[in-house]
Amino acid sequence: MASKLVQLKSKAAQASQLVAKHGGSYYRQLLEQNKQYIQDPPTAEKCNLLSKQLLYTRLASIPGRYEAFWKELDSAKKLWKNRKELKVEDAGIAALFGLECFAWFCAGEIVGRGFTFTGYYV
């Protein structure tokens, strides 16, 4: 256990040296590449305005997303009614989608427990 702690400390020291050496240039490069997204002047009032714009834009998009949801649900109902005419390829795609959803659920559970598989910290 102590050897792992020493190893972790050395890795953390290497990472902090790398950040100290290249962090400033990376930060400046990142800002230069994305300067079209930076609001000038960068004030708290501007941040409040942008957050309100985001909130109300998201609220305005709800009716469109609501309609898209019901269209998607209607097409799923139609597929279920005509399931006897369902091709093997379509059933395979649906099975893969269900498997992918289950895998994302399992990954989320593992992440939520702090990347442990048993739920206990080792």
Describe the structure in brief.
By secondary structure, this protein is an all-alpha fold. It folds into three domains: 1-38; 40-81; 86-114. 77% of the residues lie in helices and 0% in strands.
Tag the structure with descriptive keywords.
122 residues, mainly alpha, 3 domains, 77% helix, proton transmembrane transporter activity, transport, Mitochondrial ATP synthase subunit G protein, ATP_synth_F0_gsu_mt, mitochondrion
Topology record:
Elements: H1 2-33, H2 44-60, H3 62-81, H4 88-112
Model description:
This protein has 122 residues and is mostly helical. It folds into three domains: 1-38; 40-81; 86-114. 77% of the residues lie in helices and 0% in strands. The protein has helices at 2-33, 44-60, 62-81, 88-112. The protein is flat, with a radius of gyration of 25 Å. The N and C termini lie close together (11 Å). The mean pLDDT is 88.
Number of DSSP E strands: 0
Q: Rg to the nearest angstrom?
A: 25 Å
The level of helicity is over 70%
Domain unit count: 3
Which stretches are low in confidence, meaning pLDDT under 50 for 5 or more residues running? none
Q: Termini, distance in Å?
A: 11 Å
